[in-house]
Write a structure and sequence with these properties.
This protein is α+β, with helices and mostly antiparallel strands. Helices cover 28% and strands 48% of the residues. It has 1 helix and 8 strands; from the N terminus they run H-E-E-E-E-E-E-E-E. The protein has one helix spanning 2-47; strands at 49-57, 63-69, 74-78, 90-99, 102-112, 118-130, 134-144, 150-162. An 8-stranded antiparallel β-barrel has the order 1-2-3-4-5-6-7-8. The longest helix is centred in the N-terminal third of the chain and has 46 residues, at 2-47. The model is unreliable at 17-39 (pLDDT under 50).
């Protein structure tokens, strides 16, 4: 009789333990989703902000621009400062975080010809790696000309340092 009682108690304990494990297994995706959301928010905050950026187009001189990564995943790009103290061009784009330390972004901006005209519209895509205060990216660009032709792809790299304002 005692053996049977211990067996029943052992069975109840095993069932309880199984129920606890089952409940934990059900709760794990919910907890990891919350943690994943926190990691995602942290990664997004790492990208967001104003970045002083050097653009290195293959075979051309580097240029200094400012990229502003917005919370809503929009980007504003302010081209090099002209003689009048204003950016030579203003571009726009969008970004997405691809992992905790990587992101990608697309940009487009008018491509000035240096004499007040425009050569065309530059479109670019970049894949970037991120740290708290720096990023580096590589990708390519295309130039859509007014006559309907497209030049590219052209390799481009960028390095950015978080601006202190």
């Amino acid at each position: 009789m005692t053996g049977r009682l211990v067996g029943v108690r052992g069975l109840r304990g095993a069932l309880r333990a199984g129920a606890v494990v089952f409940a934990a297994a059900l709760a794990l995706p919910l907890m990891s989703t919350g943690a994943g959301a926190q990691v995602d928010a942290l990664g997004a905050r790492l990208v967001q902000g104003r970045w002083n950026t050097t653009v290195l187009p293959n075979g051309k001189p580097p240029s200094e621009v400012v990229l502003v990564f917005r919370r809503d995943h929009r980007i504003e790009m302010y081209g090099p400062i002209g003689t009048d103290g204003e950016p030579v061009y203003v571009g726009t784009g969008s970004w997405v975080r691809t992992s905790p330390r990587t992101f990608s972004f697309d940009l487009q901006h008018p491509l000035p010809d240096g004499s007040g005209g425009v050569i065309g519209t530059l479109r670019g895509h970049q894949e970037g790696q991120l740290s708290a205060f720096r990023f580096s990216s590589s990708g390519e660009s295309f130039v859509d000309k007014p006559d309907g032709t497209t030049v590219g792809p052209n390799p481009v790299t960028m390095t950015g340092v978080r601006a202190r304002r």
